[in-house]
Design goal:
The chain has 210 residues and is mainly α. Helix content is 62%, strand content 7%.
Amino acid sequence: MSNLSAALPASIASKETTSALATIGDAALDAAISSGALDGVPILGAATGIWRAHKEAGQQLFMRKVVRFLRETNQTADQDRIDFVDRLKADGKTEEFGEAILLILDRLDDTVKPGILGRLVAAHIRGDLDYDKMMRLTSIVSRCYAEDLELLRNFSNGVQREKTPIAESLFAAGLLSNGGMDGGNFSDPLSGGIIFNLNEYGDLLKRFGL
């Protein structure tokens, strides 16, 4: 894991990532892995070597998740990405960051959340999100059901009616807060219940991850 952990930040800063991902679409990803077309990107080259050796379906899925993550981090300025990795090195957090993100990517159960993680890291690279909040949000996202996160896009504080079970899940994950109870009215059984409010982390995720 240590080689891969160091390779992920290197891939974020590498200009090779830009050219490689610009020409490889999802449909051609498997062929690119087999041919070595992605080997110039440090993390993809290292992971491709493992994939070629074992030919495991899980490794192929992992590669797809890494690509989706890097596509989002790559939507930032080249110099900003280089500065970000330089800060990681100066703080001694290069492998710590790489390992944390790779572990999260490895256990994600879909191919939507890697893009969300990439957008959160991109927000930090741009200076819109501090490091600790960015890392906390990546952990929160990993624990959520991807479809539940869609509720945050147009979220309004208050009783969530038929979407209350989803709101309860997001509350448990740390993205919503409990604003008390609404008694509702007898003519509309769904009008009452728990009042859910978007908290700081829910707002940051809505703004920078979705």
